[in-house]
Amino acid sequence: xEAPPTPPVALGRLLADGELGLRRLAGPAEAxxxxxxxxxMADPSPYLLGGELLLTAGAGLAGAGLAGAETDPDGGADxxxxxxxxxxxxxxxxxFGVTPVHESVPxxxxxxxxxxxxxxxxxxxxxxxxxxxxxxxxxxxxxxxxELRRVTDxxxxxxxxxxxxxxxxxxxxxxxxxxxxxxxLLAPATxxxxxxxxxxxxxxxxxGVIRSAWAGAAGVEPGAExxxxxxxLARRVAPGPGSAATATDTLAGTHLAAYAVGGGQxxxxxxxxxxxxxxxxxxxxxxxxxxxxxSRPAGTEAAALTRLLLDNDPAGALAPGPWYVxxxxxxxxxxxxxxxxxxxxxxxxxNGNGAGNGAGDGDGDGDGDGxxxxxxxxxxPQPGWTLxxxxxxxxxxxxxxxAQAQRALDRAEAARTPLVRHTAGGLxxxxxxxxxxxxxxxxxxxxxxAHRETLRAWLAHHGSxxxxxxxxxxxxxxxxxxxxxxxxxxxxxxxxxxTRMELWFALRRLPGAGQR
Length: 516
Fold this sequence. Notes:
By secondary structure, this protein is α+β, with helices and mostly antiparallel strands.
C-alpha cells in the first residue's frame, strides 16, 4: 500500500503558536493549510495550487487603493478584486505582514476578506515570513508522522483480527473503530430491484441497503438516507463493464466509500470525517476480507498444506494461478506485508531447507534468508521492504520461481531499489554458477570490501557521483576517490562500457552480493 498523503495543518494551530504571534482579523477561524507561499504581486492567483497560506506585506498593492490612494479613496474595489481572485484560486488564508509598507492591515482588505469568507491573519513585524513557513512544514511533518503511526497501528490491528476464530466480524469491528464510523460487508447476490433489504448483521430493515451473506457490520449504524446512498455507491464497484475498484461520495457531512472485495462483494463505509490515511487502512481491510471470504479450491490453507504434504502435489493444493513468489527483506511486520500483498501463504523466516529448489542467494545453494511469500496478485512496492518478485508461475513451477525471486531480491538490494522483477533469459541463465563465481572472485580480488561496495553502488546508479554518495551515506569526493582507486587496483578503464558490464556481472556473483 502506498503511504498516505501528508495531512494539512489547521490554521488554528498556527494562531495558537505564541512565538509566531499571529492574529486573526477576518474570516473563519479554521481552515486547512496545505502549504505556504509569499508574493508581493498584485495578482498572485495564477501561481497558487490551492490550499496555501498566502503571505504578503502589501508591497505590490501600495497605491492600488489599499492605503486609500486618491484614485480610489475607499479602496474597496481593489481589495475586493484581490481577495476574490485568491478565493477563486483556492487559497486557504491570507497573512498580511505589517511594516515596513503598511503600519496596519488596511481596513478595506479586512472588509473584503469578511465578505468573501477568506481568513485574514495579521503577521507582526517581529515574525519573519520564513518563520511562518517553517512552522507550517514542522506541523505538517508532525501530522504526517502521527498519520503514518495511526495507519501502521491500524494495519497491525486488522492483521491480528484476521487471525481470530471469527475473522470477518473482527476485521469489520477493528476497521469501524479505526475510522470512527460504520463498516459493512455487502453481498450483491441478495440485491433486489427495489433495493429493499436489511443492513448486514443487524436484521433491521435497511431501506435500500443490501443484506450481506456474512454477519458483517460494525460501528454505529447510519440513517436510512445514508444507507441508501451507500447501496447506490456499492453498485458502482460491483462486477460489470465500467466498474471501479473504489468509489467515494459525501452526503450531509457523512463520508461514504465502497471497495470491491472480490466475489461480487463490497465493503461499504460511512464515516463522519475522512483522514488522509483512511484509504490506506480501508484498502488493507478490503484485501483481508477478500482473502477471508474467497472460495478456495483446496478448501482452507490447512487442507492445501495437507494435500501438498501427503500427495506431493502442489498443482492439486493450489489454484492454477498464475502465482508469484516474493522474497523480501525489511524491518516491517511479515504478516502486514502478506496482508498488503493479498496472501496468507507466508514463510516469515524464509530459510526453509533450500534443498533442491534453488532458493537462496541466487547461486542455487539455498542459503538465503528473509521472508518468502506466494501470491496470486502482481506485487507492488511496499514501504519498509525490499522485494524480489518471480515471473508468473503455475503451482508446479514454484520451485523455479523461488530461485527467480531470490535473484531479483539480490539485484534490488544491490541497486538500492524497493522492488525488482525477474526477467527471463539473460547471461545468468547461460552460465554455470560455480564458474561465474570463480571468475568474479579472481577479477575482484584486488578490491577490499569498501571498494567493492562503492563500485557496486556506483555501477547500479549508472556512474552518478551524487546518487552513489547518497545511497552510501558518504561524501561525493569519497566516492570519487574510491572509484579512482578501484580503477587503479583493477587496471581497468571504468569508462569502458564492456568493463562496466563485466564488473557488474562479477559483483553480483560474489557470496552475499546485495545483502546488508
